[in-house]
Amino acid sequence: MERYIKRKTEEMLQLIERLVNIDSGSYVKEGVDQVGQILREEFRQLGFVTRVKREEEFGDHLVLRHKHAKDPKIIILAHMDTVFPEGTVAERPFRIEGNRAFGPGVVDMKSSLVVLLYAIKSLIKHGSKSVENVEIILNSDEEVGSPTSRRLIEERSKGKKFALAMEPARKDGSLVAARRGSGKYKLFVHGRAAHSGIEPEKGRSAIEELAYKIIQLHDLTDHENGVSVNVGLIEGGSAVNTVSDHAMAHVDVRISEKEQGVYLEKKIQEICSTTEVPGTKIVLEGEMGRPPMEHNEQNRSLLRIIKGVGKEIGVDVSATSTGGGGDASFTAATGVATVDGLGPVGGNAHRDTEYLEIDTLPERTLLLAKTIERLSAMKSQLQ
Predict the structure, then answer these.
(1) Are 146 and 307 in contact (CB under 8 A)?
(2) Catalytic residue selected from 23, 33, 81, 357
(3) In sequence order, what are the residues at sequence separation of 6 or more whose Cβ sits closer than 8 angstroms to the Cβ of residue 55?
(4) Is residue 359 among the annotated active site residues?
(5) Residue 136 · residue 119 · CB < 8 Å
(6) Where is the Peptidase M20 dimerisation domain (predicted)?
(7) 142 catalytically annotated
(8) Cα 232 from chain centroid?
(9) CATH of 2-180+292-381, one of 3.40.50.2000, 3.40.630.10, 3.40.50.970, 3.40.190.10
(10) Residues with Cβ within 8 Å of residue 97, at least 6 apart in sequence
(11) Cβ–Cβ under 8 Å, residues 82 and 143
(12) Alpha-carbon gap, residue 257 to 296, rounded angstroms
């Protein structure tokens, strides 16, 4: 299997180039669907059947199973969208410099899509029935929080025993064993305008009220326990000599444990239910979005299996935690043993300098294929 995958590295790069050179930002539906069509055809040739979940705003989501699959126990998550707007490919298309490939979405996660495809190809080439034990979800809105695919992921997670998420490995090659959960809120403060020189006493400053709220919200931060509340963007007022009648803030919340999210939701609502400046009013919008992917025993158990596979094939598998969100949080929250970061190694995701370490394509493809095979061999124990 290892020899087969290595021989296919150049072929993998050609497909990566083809996918990278398609603008497929989350809101570029046509481009995302084009990526989906290419992958559907590739998997069709391998005997996979695709169920399409149509979307109007985002690209269509795809659920793929081998035609002989009956009750797969492994769910594999990958996304087809990127963060880059339409026109980015024209500015900086796919290119290779030395051992690295560059381009919009090259590692997050066009290369992961190809690693997944070729892991399946290698299993089929070597007659492995383990391909019948996987269900693959390719979604199209991960980069904007998976608003339309979250329910699909949660529904398809039912009855699964293992979840493998294809976000790229970290720069040092580490897999992702835990992810922080996240929430997004907006505070709208309404006051009363007045001239700050002529009749300031008649005004009710929305900006002043927002300032109180920012301090109260930031006081909820507890870095030692993995909680952060950050007001990252504010706006308000109409002129320097006018008491502001409106102000607004965007709030980012990060948590490490599910219970922290419940607590913070309650506290944020409490803070915004009262005002310090008489005559002002507050409207709160938003919620906790992705739950955390906790580093619990079932996830650690799956990680140990993957580390064992890595040892057998000569790949040193380590793991880390990250503050960023991902779809792995949804499978983990439903009780499915989950490990993320099974894509190839790279870095600078979401930036102009995003890159893929080309040498890691064959090793990560082999690691994924062998992991699928190992987990499938355990299927009879998990019925």
Answers:
(1) no
(2) 81
(3) 29, 61, 140, 141, 148
(4) no
(5) no
(6) 178-277
(7) yes
(8) 20
(9) 3.40.630.10
(10) none
(11) yes
(12) 10
Contacts 24+ apart (CB under 8 A), 281-285: 281/189, 281/190, 282/187, 282/188, 282/189, 282/190, 282/209, 282/213, 283/187, 283/188, 283/190, 284/185, 284/186, 284/187, 284/188, 285/185, 285/186, 285/188
User: CATH: 1.20.1250.20, 3.30.70.360, 3.20.20.70, 2.60.120.260. Which one for 181-288?
Assistant: 3.30.70.360
| Separation between Cα atoms, residue 141 and residue 372, nearest integer Å | 25
At residue 60, what are phi and psi to the nearest 5 degrees? -70, 145
**Which tens digit of pLDDT belongs to each residue from 148-192?**
999 999 999 999 999 999 999 999 999 999 999 999 999 999 999
* Annotated active-site residue in 23, 33, 132, 142: 142
Predicted TM-score (pTM) of the model is 0.89
